[in-house]
Amino acid sequence: MNEPIICRVALAIPLHKQFDYLLPAHMVKDNSMTLIGCRVLVPFGGGPRKQVGVITATPKESDFAIEKLKSVTQLLDKAPLLSTPLYDLLHWAAVYYQHPFGDVFQQAIPTLLRKGKAAAFKTQEYWKLEQDGFDFNQLARAKKQLHAATLLQDFPLSYEALKGEGVSRSTLNSLQEKKVVAAYEQMPSSNSTWINNVQELQQKPNLSAEQAIAITSVTQQLNKFRCYLLEGITGSGKTEVYLNILKAVLEQGQQALIIVPEIGLTPQTIKRFQARFNVPIYLKHSALNEQQQLDTWLHAKQGSAAIVIGTRSAIFSDFTNLGLIILDEEHDASFKQQDSFRYHARDFAIKRASQESIPILLGSATPAFESLNNALSGRYHHLFLTHRPGNAKPPKNDLINLTGLPLKSGLSPQLIELMQQHLAKNNQVILFLNRRGYAPVLMCHECGWLAKCQRCDAFYTYHKSANYLHCHHCMATHPVPEQCHDCGSTHLHSTGVGTEQLEETLNQLFPDHPTVRIDRDNTRKKDSFNDYLNDINSGKYKILLGTQMLAKGHHFPDVTLVALVDVDGALFSNDFRASERLGQLFTQVAGRAGRAEKKGQVVLQTFHPEHNLLQELINNGYGDFSRTALQERKMAQLPPFSFQALIRAEALNATQAENFLTLCKQTLNQIAETNKIADRLLILGPIAASMERRAGKYRFQLLIQSEQRVLITKTLNIALAYFEKLPEGRKVRWSIDVDPIDFI
Is residue 517 one of the residues assigned to a domain? Predict the structure, then answer.
């Protein structure tokens, strides 16, 4: 074969367009080699710029003259990078989510592969004992060195493994100088010996009847697609159900993928799974370095990972023999990517399970309305856990009417007294306030001036400890002014309460009971969040204050009182999902109370105790509330009883953004009329976003809604080519969000 091959390449660019290149014959060593799905390095644009792309086709002809086609610089793979099912699934996602395939492909692979690195393990540093029959008594006075040498007495370990056991580099160097140990380079193990050696390492707790039914329902239907919704109240033992189902899957020699919503949940999840099974378990999330992410991906692809536990992007992991997907806390909004490739990990996971003919288990105490509706209608198999194991009882729920009460940083006298009672019994207390900083507003006492962000329709948040103003929308920061910008007064004071201010007040009210604040501001350092969790479980802190980071899946056996300090803002939102989110938040936060033998209490402070939503949640729980709210959604024909797509546009000039969407609407209407579906396709807008100005740009949106999902997909597939040709589109930044969950 001497003639170059025409190959069509998808690049990670924001255009629904692919490019033809010539692949020199000498790069293809084997005529039978499959090229589609292989990465290539190609020249793109002017100058020396090179970009990694993926071959999507090898057409016999090109729309361009052969002599005008550029040549591929390098063929990076000897075989397709992804398995055929996963490659095909990415194609589906590109069409469904209206996103360029090249960018979808790039986002689905580890960062090092996007940069053109080889899909291979990097050698790791290992340490071994240098002396056979070494007398450990020689190190009796050097406890750190003795610890390190003892770890190595049976077999060599990687430096990462030793570091995880508390062994420092200096300790190893000291042992090396004594010629006790030696270092060497080795490729990480990638064998699959675990398949024939699956063992449980600890005794299982007794199962409840509901747990046994849930486990049997899934394990009797392995090796075929079925979607299960496990609706279990907080603390009901959903993880134990997962572990028992996993055992059956692992014993078949199959791999499993566990997806959780937050990085903070992966360490505690992996600890439980490692304590149960003697199989290789790997993590996949953004806090890992690039090589660690690639190694996890390779272990999954080569079959040496039995279980992969990760956040949203873990759904793109390639597997040798995937047998089960579990999506924990399936309701969580973080499963939806909010920029660029706007996929939903839950929906992608269900599609993947269907394509690979394996079961998928969605677990939550507060199922998303979409999942709940699918379960109630019979499309998903509905499983229930309605009781906590052992003697654990559901917490008692109470409302505190704040009207007319004197408050201390948002705390009512009744709540302060309740805290004293619970703390006096040596229990722990959680206070939930979903507002970071010291105060949400800085105001002039003389004229009422408010410190507003210059680039957003929002106020600066005052951070007292660092003494600066911070916009939590565009991330802009500003020094705290010494005087009012309008009248010059120096009488500036903060208004409202944030977690920082509440922490200050708690330290004053309860000096004998240490308080820990858990929010994004003080958990930025690596491992800080896990360190806080360890300190909480050890009893170091008695008062736990935080944002919704504290609400997700954590087990605190000594917490007996949980209080939601302020949730009134969610009661009067223009977002139709606000009530669903409040119900989920209340239930998840409340679920941290009374999870062990101790009786729990949940308190909700509000100025509107009569509100129907609060009364429903307090008296009847999320189950009844969600089913009532679903009927209201059905009457209004809102999701999940209809489907939506949002076209967003933003520009420095508001008119430009609005004009572009007006032209998009005209195009959509023409397509709908031509295809005779205008009466089944609702097109609303363009209107300004709830926060019209953000980061200096004006934002508008156009909503498409239909009772049939396929009508939206087909219409957008046709419209996309027209949108990209609009000259007005070059003046704005625009995007399409299919199945949006955020309208702000």
Answer: yes
Euclidean distance between CA atoms 43 and 222, whole angstroms: 47
Same domain assignment for residues 732 and 695: yes
- Cis bond before residue 740 (omega within 30° of 0): no
Q: Are 724 and 16 in contact (CB under 8 A)?
A: yes
What are the φ/ψ torsions at residue 594 (nearest 5 degrees)? 60, 45
The structural domain count of the chain equals 5
Domain identity same for 130 and 109 = no
The CATH number linked to 648 is: 3.30.70.360
Query: Coil, strand, or helix at residue 483?
Result: coil
88 within 8 A of 354, measured Cβ to Cβ: no
Question: What is the 3-state secondary structure of 581-625?
Answer: HHHHHHHHHHCCCCCCCCCCEEEEEECCCCCHHHHHHHHHHHHHH
pLDDT digits (tens, 9 = 90+) for 447-505: 888 888 888 888 888 888 778 888 888 888 888 888 898 888 888 888 788 888 888 99
671 and 716: one domain? yes
Q: What is the pLDDT of residue 556?
A: 78
pLDDT at 188 over 80: no
Query: Which pLDDT belongs to residue 551?
Result: 66
The pLDDT value given to residue 199 = 79
395 prior amide bond cis, ω within 30? no
Which range marks the domain in which residue 554 is found? Answer: 396-435+497-622
Domain-located, residue 163: yes
Do residues 575 and 431 share a domain?
yes
pTM of the model: 0.87
Residue 634 lies inside a defined structural domain of this protein: no
* pLDDT (0 to 100) of residue 50: 92
From residue 731, alpha-carbon distances to 660, 666, 691 in Å are 9, 18, 21
% of the chain exceeding 70 in pLDDT: 97
The predicted structure's pLDDT at residue 527: 67
Convert the pLDDT of each residue in 47-99 to its tens digit.
Answer: 788 999 999 999 999 989 898 999 999 999 999 999 999 999 999 999 999 99
Q: What is the residue-averaged pLDDT of the chain?
A: 89
Task: State the pLDDT at residue 210.
Answer: 94
Cα radius of gyration rounded to whole Å, the chain: 29
Nearest residue to 199 (alpha-carbon basis) of 158, 143, 239, 250? 250
Encoded amino acid at 525, one letter: K
- Structure tokens of 330? 């399936």
**Distance separating alpha carbons of residues 441 and 460, to the nearest angstrom:** 6
Complete edge-to-edge strand list for the sheet that includes strand 74-75: 19-23, 5-11, 50-57, 39-43, 74-75
Query: Which residue among 72, 92, 114 closes a domain?
Result: 114
Same domain, 576 and 511: yes
Q: Are 732 and 649 in contact (CB under 8 A)?
A: yes
Mean pLDDT of 389-398: 76
Give residue 241's identity as a one-letter amino acid code: V
Measured CA to CA, the distance from residue 650 to residue 457 in angstroms comes to 14
- Report DSSP letters for 186-242, one per residue: EPPP---GGGG---B-SPPPPPPHHHHHHHHHHHTTTTS-EEEEEEE-TTS-HHHHH
Each residue of 23-37: pLDDT tens digit? Answer: 998 898 777 789 999
